[in-house]
Design goal:
By secondary structure, the chain is mainly beta. Helix content is 14%, strand content 53%. It is globular, with a radius of gyration of 21 Å. It has a single domain, classed as NlpE, N-terminal domain (Lipocalin, Beta Barrel).
């Protein structure tokens, strides 16, 4: 009887561990992703980061931040200046959606975006509170505030 109780207890512990692993909300470093992350660099360059557009104008990224909430929702806001060589104007882009964490990976699922992109994407969280997002060949580094 004692042998069966021990195996039942061991089985319950293993099942509990598996259930916990499937709904992991912290990285292996014990870091929870829910926080505010501010953009620091794009492709290794500090802000403002600039890139050319197809119409000949230039976009200057002035700032970008993600806010990951405890309820698994997130918001992103990007502040840019667009210049065509004659005049400049400010643009604010926004994105909202849901996020999940599995170990060091943060998965984003946009539900609203002024950019019109609703494709899911992922980021990586390290033990220093740095989030790395790589999209379409562009690597963005964010620091937790």
């Amino acid at each position: 009887m004692q042998r069966r109780s021990l195996s039942t207890l061991l089985g319950a512990v293993v099942c509990a561990g598996l259930l916990t692993a499937c709904s992991d909300t912290t990285s292996p470093f014990g870091r929870q992703a829910a926080a505010t992350y501010s953009l620091q660099t794009v492709n290794g360059y500090r802000l403002p980061y600039s890139f050319g557009n197809q119409d000949g104008s230039t976009t200057f990224v002035q700032g970008d931040a993600y806010v990951l909430h405890d309820d698994d929702s997130y918001g992103e806001i990007t502040n840019e200046t667009v210049s065509d060589g004659y005049q400049s104007y400010n643009v604010t882009e926004t994105e909202t959606g849901t996020w999940s964490q599995n170990g060091n990976t943060i998965n984003f699922r946009p539900t609203s975006s002024t950019r019109g992109s609703f494709s899911s994407y992922s980021g990586y969280l390290d033990n220093q509170g740095t989030m790395r997002i790589s999209l379409n060949g562009t690597v963005s580094i964010y620091y937790a505030q």
